[in-house]
From TrEMBL:
<feature type="signal peptide">
    <location>
        <begin position="1"/>
        <end position="23"/>
    </location>
</feature>
<comment type="similarity">
    <text>Belongs to the glycosyltransferase 29 family.</text>
</comment>
<keyword id="KW-1133">Transmembrane helix</keyword>
<dbReference type="GO" id="GO:0097503">
    <property type="term" value="P:sialylation"/>
</dbReference>
<protein>
    <recommendedName>
        <fullName>CMP-N-acetylneuraminate-beta-galactosamide- alpha-2,3-sialyltransferase 1-like</fullName>
    </recommendedName>
</protein>
<feature type="disulfide bond">
    <location>
        <begin position="96"/>
        <end position="220"/>
    </location>
</feature>
<dbReference type="GO" id="GO:0032580">
    <property type="term" value="C:Golgi cisterna membrane"/>
</dbReference>
<dbReference type="GO" id="GO:0005576">
    <property type="term" value="C:extracellular region"/>
</dbReference>
<keyword id="KW-0735">Signal-anchor</keyword>
<keyword id="KW-0808">Transferase</keyword>
<keyword id="KW-0472">Membrane</keyword>
<keyword id="KW-0812">Transmembrane</keyword>
<dbReference type="InterPro" id="IPR038578">
    <property type="entry name" value="GT29-like_sf"/>
</dbReference>
<keyword id="KW-0333">Golgi apparatus</keyword>
<dbReference type="GO" id="GO:1901137">
    <property type="term" value="P:carbohydrate derivative biosynthetic process"/>
</dbReference>
<dbReference type="InterPro" id="IPR001675">
    <property type="entry name" value="Glyco_trans_29"/>
</dbReference>
<keyword id="KW-0328">Glycosyltransferase</keyword>
Length: 277
């Protein structure tokens, strides 16, 4: 009997000590270390949750991540099976107008000439409304990097440049009757080809405008180029903006190299370059 009383008193003492010191030190038997400092961790064993949760799947793409073939194929389900382009033909002359955003388009009156082309490629957020006389009214393709995303009507193909560390959640045109078939994604191999072969690896990567220009050489039989280069004062500016920074340059893009290549292509009669002044 005395032994039972002693055992009971011992348990009561231990319980009391644990209660008093609970916030200071654990009194339970050692357990597996918790994966987080929260009161309850998401990754704690829960049959319903763990049936779906797979921590081994990396949420972000990195240079060291090996994308599985299944994931690669799933990704490209969002891309049209074939690009919507005019095919070459002996009885057709495919004409392209590539419209950059240079300030030298101001008062150029190139609008009707631009609109006369079969394919009209514009770059990033190039404005039309209010500038129709100089830049035209039609757009068949608009080439963009992620940070230049904008709403498009359902007659314009969105040409995505899948580059930089920004993320495209889902490539889309956002007009009232938008259609995923209007989306075209530039091949990263094409972008590297432009950088390596046409720019001889100058700069970090091609500008959107230069990508659009080389794209036009691949899509059309005759190419006309408008709105490239610095304005008449030597400033790199947009035709729809008032230039406040007189020292604005081309950043990571090799602007001078790109401009010289356009001039060379014009001299070789591979395109027509309309300088605007």
């Amino acid at each position: 009997m005395k032994l039972k009383v002693r055992a009971l008193m011992f348990l009561l003492c231990v319980t009391t000590i644990c209660v008093l010191w609970r916030g200071y030190r654990p009194c339970s038997l050692p357990q597996e270390k918790s994966p987080c400092a929260c009161e309850r961790c998401l990754s704690e064993d829960d049959p319903w949750f763990m049936k779906r949760f797979n921590k081994s799947v990396e949420p972000f793409l990195s240079a060291n991540y090996n994308l599985s073939e299944d994931a690669f194929n799933w990704l490209f389900l969002t891309v049209p099976p074939s690009p919507d382009v005019l095919e070459s033909s002996p009885d057709r002359c495919r004409t392209c107008a590539v419209v950059g955003n240079s300030g030298n388009l101001r008062r150029s009156h190139y609008g009707p000439l631009i609109d006369f082309h079969d394919v009209i490629i514009r770059v990033n957020a190039g404005q039309i409304k209010g500038y129709e006389a100089d830049v035209g009214t039609r757009t068949t393709h608009r080439v963009m990097y992620p940070e230049s995303s904008m709403d498009l009507d359902n007659t314009t193909h969105l040409v995505l440049a899948p580059f930089k560390t920004a993320v495209w959640i889902y490539p889309k045109s956002t007009g009232p009757n938008s259609d995923s078939q209007q989306v075209m994604v530039l091949n990263p191999a094409f972008m590297r080809y432009v950088h390596d072969m046409w720019l001889e690896k100058k700069g970090y990567y091609p500008s959107t405008g230069f990508l659009a220009l080389i794209l036009a050489l691949h899509m059309c039989d005759e190419v006309s180029v408008f709105g490239y280069g610095a304005d008449s004062d030597g400033n790199w500016s947009h035709y729809w903006e008032k230039l406040n920074n007189k020292r604005l340059k081309t950043g990571a893009h090799p602007g001078d190299t790109e401009y010289r290549m356009i001039q060379e292509l014009d001299e070789q009669q591979k395109l027509r370059f309309y300088t605007g002044f």
